[in-house]
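Students often ask what a 'structure token' actually looks like in practice. Rather than answer in the abstract, let us consider Protein SGT1 homolog A isoform X1, a protein of 356 residues. Its sequence is given first.
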Amino acid sequence: MAKELADKAKEAFIDDEFDVAVDLYSKAIDLDPNCADFFADRAQSYIKLLSFTEAVADANKAIELDPSLTKAYLRKGTACMKLEEYRTAKTALEKGASIAPSDSKFKKLIDECDLRITEEEKDLVQPVPSTLPLSSTAPSVSELDLTPAPAAPAKPKYMHEYYQKPEEVVVTVFAKGIPKQNVNIDFGEQILSVVIDVPGEEAYYLQPRLFGKIIPDKCKYEVLSTKIEIRLAKADIITWPSLEHGKGPVVLPKPNVSSEVSQRLAYPSSKKVKDWDKLEAEVKKQEKDEKLEGDAALNKFFRDIYSNADEDMRRAMSKSFVESNGTVLSTNWQEVGTKKIESTPPDGMELKKWEI
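Now compare that with the structural description of the same chain:
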């Protein structure tokens, strides 16, 4: 029965009815979940539907079931290239080429991967650190590019959340009591693929394109009795505003400086700078507008005369003021310049010293 469904799926694929092909292959897989060919062929149908993430997941499953199935490596490499995850694609293609060295398709695609990787390295604004490990045995999946992959075949039935540290992101899937053998997790350059496939139940998929790049070799996961905990090693020390790509701006880490300097850099306008010229002008205006009485008013009157006087007038005022002991204030230099001013006030006049 499963074989008949697979044959019908191939006919639908030839007729460009890719949705029908996926549905028929899925039914065949339900009947025979250990057939690697069914997964590899469904991966090809997913590629035609531009569902590259699902294609990679199926190719990985086919490779797990039959590590010598060359078309599974070809499907995986093709899907990864469509998603511009060329290093992951190259790893899969090289593995397939080692199994089928006479197949020219592998060499052609590997050469294209090399070209794309070179171009990518030239265009990178912030290149991935040179210590980033590349392992031919590391599990790999593709990253989603311009358009998000279509929704997972089944409605998600497990909640997930994440938190992060400077060097890693921790994703938790709240799946309780799931056997480890029913959990398939793969890491790519910028994608996480979580598949929980329990016999008799609909499969669960969590396959986001991640906000930032990760280091697959340093990523790990643990299946616990109440949850699945996944640790993603960041390739760059930046803060992810979201788990998925394209949902927020990059946040650079805060510089490690003293609190005083940090506050000064982070809040340059938190303390207002005084405008001393403006303050002086306000004081002068207040002094000018101030209404004084008695001696204070007279002193201000003399100061105003002195500040607006020319050089001869100031000399006359200073000389007359000093020589008369503060009782005479003249503004005529010709009058006071050659004679001494008497300091004795007239009878009945109180002696006052005016300030100028």
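One point worth highlighting: Strands lie at 160-164, 168-173, 183-187, 192-196, 204-206, 220-223, 228-233. Ask yourself how you might have guessed this from the sequence alone, and why that guess would often be unreliable.
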